[in-house]
Design brief:
EC number: 2.3.2.27
Subunit structure: Interacts with CENPH.
Strand order of the largest sheet: 21-22-35-25-31-32-33
Catalytic activity: S-ubiquitinyl-[E2 ubiquitin-conjugating enzyme]-L-cysteine + [acceptor protein]-L-lysine = [E2 ubiquitin-conjugating enzyme]-L-cysteine + N(6)-ubiquitinyl-[acceptor protein]-L-lysine
Family: Belongs to the TRIM/RBCC family.
Oligomer: single chain
Largest sheet: 7 strands, antiparallel
Subcellular location: Cytoplasm, Cytoskeleton; Cytoplasmic vesicle, Secretory vesicle, Acrosome
């Protein structure tokens, strides 16, 4: 672009600014990066056609990459032995952005991330950031408005001797700014430099030719209509766009420019309509403000009526209690006065003593007869003392349970919107909480609000947290360990909401969730065990080898267990993990074992083992009774045939029916390494089934063993991707 053309276009924009038709404040919304909320710096065009700063893309990918390396341990204890990477620093990003930088361990491996503009996931493909185009047009506009914002700050000549003069031109080929004198010196007539492209003073230099990011030596000369992005001829001949419809760059330029100009002209022509709609919106805002205040006043009136009723009932109840209290105290007072009269020199006794002094027989008999009756009555009352009234006010306890429940459901008129119901079977809690609900009128609800709060042990009222949801399920994170949480949901249609659903109470695990996979190297027997590719499921195959080993049953021996352990050890802290045992499983053992015990098991594999020497084998052997109380470096419980077997102990009943429980759908294991204690939980009710001490002097590993046909599935951590997977099933 020539100097005159550049200046005339810039002058046109400045003229619009001066006339107030386009203000920097209004247009800045289009020039601000949705990630960093600042003016764009080297913006890149994402596949969804939104733009984002180059550094922001790097930071987002590195952050997601670090989260990926921290597999499932967002809620894990910091004492977990897994390696954790810190969040990416600006230092790291600067090293990545530095010219000449080569790909190394700092290269983001993650290529999928949510666009900050539209929140939809975008996939950068194999080339990652290298495959994105730089939005030079947006960059130029940002630079123009930066100049407009700092009009008082001049751009100085880069070649002047100190002190530098104010520049008048900038050369796009030299990427430098010049004053008039320096420009003549470094761009003399008759030389190649005289043909350089120059513009008005700027600090934004961009290449003259746009090159293909996939074929770096090729110019962009075509436009893919399907992908809506510029491409080179190699992309069309044998690249990703070979089967796509393309057009020439000049044709695409002409078409898009005509469309854009036409749309802009349409908007400008509709300026009066837009202004009238803005006025209408202002009126609607004022009307909404008034209606909102009126609704608040109506709500206050209704609540004040309730307060009046409550105050009236409160006054009536308190009066009844006061009246009963006064009556009882009066009775106690009268009774106390009567008993005080029985004391010597007081009341009745004193009067009787005076009567005894009477010497006239007829007078004495006349007075003593009535007095004797009173003395007899007082004597009988002493023999059978009974308080004149009750001290308890049990009959005056106010029952507000029904009213409390009704007040808890107090809401706006539903206007026909049904109440959503939480699906208790599909809702669960692990590292996070997954809440599912169904709504009979799903298509009629615009959105839902999921509310949850922690239930305090002190009956302290905790405020509800609210999350707006546009589906019928939600993953709730950042819940505290070993706590009860209440969840409820309500539906919204416009400004009308339904009453809240019934509350669902879920108990979080007793410790942060510990993430691991099955170890395919340490002791893994691929002849008997089958491990899936994700290494979160293992199955035992009762094949020909097991059939041959069964011959030893004739001499009183049993086939051995096939062990498999977790790929991560624990050296301190509290950890919790869960798994499911397939219902068809014959015999499965699960628990924890120390590194030295595992070496003993796996270093000396035996084809046949007597269960008598397995302390937690589940058989009634003598060793089990003698060794149970001593702390040992492993603890395994037996699960099989749809049963959960609690090991024998001196404190538990030895009756089999008391030691055999139905197998839970999901079983949890809680290891407190520092206290040397392991517990086994029913995940459905978060109930502890069995716990005991364990020697944690070495690194502890999740340990499993199988015999015969069986299968173990590790519980998958609940994440947003888990939710998408559940919806697709």
């Amino acid at each position: 672009m020539s100097e005159s053309g550049e200046i005339s276009e810039f002058g046109y924009i400045m003229e619009l600014l001066a006339k107030g038709k386009v203000t920097i404040k209004n247009i800045e919304r289009e020039l601000i990066c949705p990630a960093c909320k600042e003016l764009f710096t080297h913006p890149l065009i994402l596949p969804c056609q939104h733009s984002i700063c180059h550094k922001c893309v790097k930071e987002l990918l590195l952050t997601l990459d670090d989260s990926f390396n921290d597999v499932g341990s967002d809620n894990s204890n910091q004492s977990s032995p897994r390696l954790r990477l810190p969040s990416p620093s600006m230092d790291k990003i600067d090293r990545i952005n530095r010219p000449g930088w080569k790909r190394n361990s700092l290269t983001p491996r993650t290529t999928i991330f949510p666009c900050p503009g539209c929140e939809h996931d975008v996939d950068l493909g194999e080339r990652g950031i290298s495959g994105l185009f730089r939005n030079f047009t947006l960059e130029t506009i940002v630079e123009r408005y930066r100049q407009a914002a700092r009009a008082a700050t001049a751009i100085m000549c880069d070649l002047c001797k100190p002190p530098p003069q104010e520049s008048t031109k900038s050369c796009m080929d030299c990427s430098a700014s010049y004053c008039n004198e320096c420009f003549k010196i470094y761009h003399p007539w008759g030389t190649v430099k005289a043909q350089h492209e120059y513009v008005g003073p700027t600090t934004n230099f961009r290449p003259k030719i746009l090159m293909c990011p996939e074929h770096e030596t090729e110019r962009i000369n075509m436009y893919c209509e399907l992908c809506r992005r510029p491409v080179c001829h190699l992309c069309k001949l044998g690249g990703n766009h070979s089967n796509h419809r393309v057009t020439t760059m000049s044709s695409a330029y002409k078409t898009l420019k005509e469309k854009l100009s036409k749309d802009i002209d349409y908007l400008i022509g509709k300026e009066s309509q837009v202004k009238s709609q803005i006025s209408e919106l202002n009126l609607l805002m004022k009307e909404t403000e008034c209606n909102g205040e009126r609704a608040k006043e109506d709500a206050i009136t209704h609540f004040e009526k309730l307060f009046e009723i409550l105050e009236e009932r409160k006054s009536s109840v308190l009066k009844a209690i006061d009246a009963s209290k006064k009556l009882r105290i009066d009775k106690f007072q009268t009774q106390m006065e009567e008993y005080q009269g029985l004391l010597e020199n007081n009341g009745l006794v004193g009067y009787a003593q005076e009567v005894l002094k009477e010497t006239d027989q007829s007078c004495f008999v006349q007075t003593a007869k009535q007095l004797h009756l009173r003395i007899q009555k007082a004597t009988e009352s002493l023999k059978s003392f009974r308080p004149a009234a009750q001290t308890s006010f049990e009959d005056y306890v106010v029952n507000t349970s029904k009213q409390t429940e009704l007040l808890g459901e107090l809401s706006f008129f539903s206007n026909g919107i049904d109440v959503p119901e939480i699906n208790e079977e599909q809702s669960k809690v692990y590292n996070n909480a997954l809440i599912n609900w169904y709504h009979p009128e799903k298509d009629k609800a615009d959105s839902y609000v999921l509310e949850y709060r922690k239930i305090s042990r002190d009956d302290e009222m905790v405020s509800w947290n609210e999350i707006e949801v546009y589906g019928t399920s939600k993953v709730v994170s950042e819940l505290e360990s070993n706590c009860n949480y209440a969840f409820r949901v309500r539906a919204y249609k416009g400004s009308i909401c339904s009453p809240c659903s019934r509350e669902l109470i879920l108990h979080t695990p007793p410790a942060p969730v510990f993430s691991f996979l099955f170890d395919e190297k340490c002791g893994y027997n691929n002849e008997h065990l089958l491990l899936n590719l994700k290494r979160d499921r293992v199955e035992s195959r009762a094949g020909f080898n097991l059939l041959l080993a069964a011959e030893r049953i004739q001499v009183g021996y049993y086939t051995s267990l096939d062990y498999i352990i977790g790929d991560v050890g624990i050296t301190k802290g509290k950890h919790f993990w869960a798994f499911r045992v397939e219902p068809y499983s014959y015999l499965v053992k699960a628990g924890v074992a120390s590194s030295d015990k595992l070496q003993e098991w796996l270093r000396s594999p035996r084809d046949a083992v007597s269960p008598r020497y397995e302390q937690d084998s589940g058989h009634d052997s003598g060793s089990e009774d003698t060794c149970f109380d001593s702390s040992q470096p492993f603890t395994l419980v037996t699960i099989g045939m749809k049963k959960f077997f609690i090991p024998k102990s001196p404190t538990s009943s030895n009756e089999p029916e008391n030691r055999v429980l139905p197998m839970p759908t999901s079983i949890g294991i809680f290891l407190d390494y520092d206290k040397g204690k392991v517990s086994f939980y029913d995940m459905d009710h978060m109930k502890c089934l069995y716990e005991r001490q364990v020697d944690c002097s070495h690194t502890m590993y999740p340990a499993f063993a199988l015999m015969g046909s069986g299968g173990i599935q590790l519980e998958e951590p609940i994440t947003a991707k888990y939710l998408e997977y559940e919806e697709d099933k």
